[in-house]
Amino acid sequence: MTIHLLKDLQTPIGDVLKVVGPDGVLLGSNGNPEFALMPLDDDLIDFLIERNPKLIEECRQIRQRMDAGHFRTHDEVKKLLQSSSPRGDKS
Q1: Mapping DSSP to helix (H, G, I), strand (E, B) and coil, where does residue 24 land?
Q2: Is residue 91 part of a domain?
Q3: What distance lies between CA 62 and its chain's CA centroid?
Q4: For 76, which of 19, 60, 71, 72 could close a Cys bridge (C-beta 3.0–4.6 Å)?
Q5: Number of structural domains the chain divides into
Q6: pTM for the full model?
Q7: Does residue 32 register a pLDDT over 70?
Q8: Residues 6+ apart with CB under 8 A from 25
Q9: DSSP 89
Q10: Is the pLDDT confidence value at 12 over 80?
């Protein structure tokens, strides 16, 4: 990843994005925090989702309920979905 220093914080975002390119860039600007700009791909999206505090907490709660026996098996869910089908399809 390359490093690009912004001389003016008022630089239009379009100009900044032209510098980013397909590989991303580390932006710095005279004493301000540095920022990494990079294109979103599946790996980066997975990385961000896996570290989302709300998702982590929700998964913890689900795990806790499952450990306490509050869950339905795959077959039970399939039967529930089949019985709630408007035509009674078994597909």
Answers
A1: coil
A2: no
A3: 19
A4: 72
A5: 2
A6: 0.47
A7: yes
A8: 1, 2, 3, 4, 19, 36, 37, 38
A9: -
A10: yes
